[in-house]
Amino acid sequence: MNIENSQEELARLSQVAEDVLQRARSLGASQAEVGLNIDAGLNVNVRLGEVETVEHTRDRGVAVTVYLGQHKGTASTADIRPDSIRTTVEQAIAIARYTEADPCAGLADPARMAVAAKDFDQWHPWALSADAAIALGLRCEQAGRDVDARINNSDGASVSSNASLSVYANSHGFVGSGRDTRHSISVALLAEDDQGMQRDYWYSTALSAADLEAAEAIGQRAAARTLARLSPQKIQTTTAPILFAPELARGLIGSLISAVSGGALYRRASFLLDSLGTQVLPAGVSIHENPWLNKGFASSWFDAEGVATAPNTLVADGVLQRYVLGSYSARKLGLSSTGNAGGVHNLLVQAKDTQTFDQLLAQMGRGLLVTELMGQGLNLVTGDYSRGAAGFWVEGGKIAYPVDEITIAGNLRHMLTGIVGVGSDVDLRSHILCGSLLIEQMTIAGASAPAAVLEA
């Protein structure tokens, strides 16, 4: 990818998209759509002061979907030369001829196509050489290792810079393009005392390198987090409030989104079936979607089907206002697309009364602060939730000591409605912008936990 000529590259991809659609029409497609992308990046890994890997990446992709009436065929290629694209379109046509007719298949409603292109300041190329990236990684790791003699090992530091160009077009006449960058610095450190070894990490990611935390600050924060976990204590199985750190709290919101998304709903594989207009969060807590957020990680003026996006509310005062739908799932449910083909855009979790992290600890009084989760223990059909966890036991509103080798369990429906505190400490490293979340009560399985407790 020629970063300096990115607009010219997008124009070229747009022309390729037009050629694909014309080819599909000439072969008998009643409708067609195509997505093209070019990604380029640099990824460097260092460990213990030595370079481990330096990787330059350059990927291309073309995905073509055609419809012969209600018969759908899809084919893809990583080669955008004319001969390869011609073959890919022919393969998609051939596949469509052998698929079952689906009455919900087809492009989005042409009246919903986006017409006004918008820019959200997502393009910030970083002229980062491999040598400069290595130097950043080494500084980050060394800054962490220098904090304390107990930090005696490292899983390494990584520095990456990536740029992406994309075009989506369909036979309604829609052609939309976008370009974005993503940069990151991360490090994971290990510390040891007479009670064993612990590991933790920190990272910074942003669309612009200017918005990254300093490499040394990332290393020092990773070191502080690692040292804080030394000498963990065991706790007995109990029920208590749980405070999810911001980087984990957004995962709970992500699970809520999965449960109200079209695919899970029309398959009847969600614990939030028929939940429209019902309470899914406490009163006073809302979730707003803003696809037009400046420098947002998931900002876009159109969704994956070309449908126009717009700021809107997903949850208002705890009540679910709408589902998360693309055109296909909307048709399956007898509803309309919400402009979310391809997923949600930037989500902001807000509360009428937010609190600082220290205020949430004080409100909790006695309970568990969770800073790490392990496993994928959510049953989306029932909402049953059980995850391995580590963090800190809290007494008198203050962190008392680290704990690990525990399991937290509950039901996500009850956990979400049981939120009693929302933090002002919003983690900006994601498209889900959420502070810490305090859950009123969950089961904590610690030392010698009976199996019945985990199943409760």
UniProtKB/TrEMBL annotation:
Keywords: Hydrolase, Metalloprotease, Protease. The keyword Hydrolase applies. One of its GO terms (biological process) is proteolysis. One of its GO terms (molecular function) is metallopeptidase activity. Residues 124-230 form the Metalloprotease TldD/E central domain. One of its GO terms (cellular component) is cytosol. Residues 238-446 form the Metalloprotease TldD/E C-terminal domain. Belongs to the peptidase U62 family. This is Metalloprotease PmbA. It comes from Ahniella affigens.
